[in-house]
Amino acid sequence: MALVLFLSGCGINNIPTYDEKVTAAWSQVENQYQRRADLIPNLVETVKGFAAQEQETLTAVIEARSRATSIQVDESILNNPQKLRQFQQAQGELSSALSRLMAVSERYPDLKSNQNFLALQSQLEGTENRIAVARRDFIQAVERYNTELRTFPGKIWHSLLYSDLEPRANFEATTENADEAPAVEF
């Protein structure tokens, strides 16, 4: 009985618990990306109605969305840094295309004042914020999990019971010069 009480309080379950939190946090990142992908067709259709001449930008958004949603995402992506980077790259391209689309809206006063566009733009901005929060939560979950694998007593439990669980790759910015603030010109 004393051994059971000792083992339950010594962190023996921390590693699988933290592993599940990493998986759940990544699912939330995917959830937010899916929300964004679902909003884009509505945004594109609204913009099409007001700015048909901006076909190049709209095509870039549609193609970026297609690439971002074509990557099959499952739990194996969390254990494959190359696939994770590829997924993040596709999402970065979509963000870039959406930025260009927002710039288009600045050139068309009718589009800017359209209530449907404003509502969709607000939803999209909110989604981008949710994606940032979900990424942050994923980063924190990976940090806690990887720290548990490398510190005492987690290191012992990892070597004895959970040696099949590897450290997880963390989220990385894939957009070129993501560490630099963008230049804003009016």
TrEMBL record:
It is found in: Membrane. It is a single-pass membrane protein. The keyword Membrane applies. Its main location: membrane. Gene3D superfamilies: LemA-like domain (1.20.1440.20). The keyword Signal does not apply. Keywords: Membrane, Transmembrane, Transmembrane helix. Belongs to the LemA family. This is LemA family protein.
